């Protein structure tokens, strides 16, 4: 008998880091070089299939990165089960902004939220200014999942969402709106080192 779980996922990060492109690649397997900036937030859904006839439906809120929309963000990350905080590997300032978002999530989001730090635009390796070592070290220190993607080529995109799906608590319903649970810190997971379809996935906990 198949089981489906539904989770609210929010994308956060500075404007132009590729959040909308990341979601478009994940949901529709498409990429648009001239995608306009998101206004407020966009809503999409996508379902991924796990083992044992289990599936996870993501309700995805893709938030705008512009400063003028920042005050709206709590409406979208409040009661979120998981968050992908995106930075651009060619823009060091975008990683600093990602750190700010992560601190805000740690202070104000549900304590059980699963957070993944995502370095996007891996196709621009020649212009890289944020090293994998720096981002991974930060993720380790904060107990975050971490990986790099390219919305343009598709590399790593499904991996990061699949790893989040495996990390979510599928043994019980998602926490009720407004519910607060204290959970121990999670070990950081290097998504780039995970083998696809590994049944011993360290994300599953």
Automatic annotation (TrEMBL):
Q: Quick one: where is this thing mainly located?
A: membrane
Determine if Lipoprotein is one of this entry's keywords: yes
InterPro entries on file: P-loop_NTPase, Small_GTP-bd, Small_GTPase
Q: Does the keyword Nucleotide-binding apply?
A: yes
Q: Where in the cell is it found?
A: Cell membrane
Give Gene Ontology CC terms. endosome; plasma membrane
Q: Where is this region: Disordered?
A: 170-205
One Pfam family for this entry, by name?
Ras
GO BP annotations, alphabetical order: protein transport; vesicle organization; vesicle-mediated transport
- How does the record classify its membrane topology? Lipid-anchor
Provide the alphabetized UniProt keywords: Cell membrane, GTP-binding, Lipoprotein, Membrane, Nucleotide-binding, Prenylation, Protein transport, Transport
A GO molecular function annotation here is:
GTPase activity
Q: Which SMART domains match?
A: RAB (SM00175), RAN (SM00176), RAS (SM00173), RHO (SM00174)
Q: Supply the name of the protein.
A: GTP-binding protein RAB5
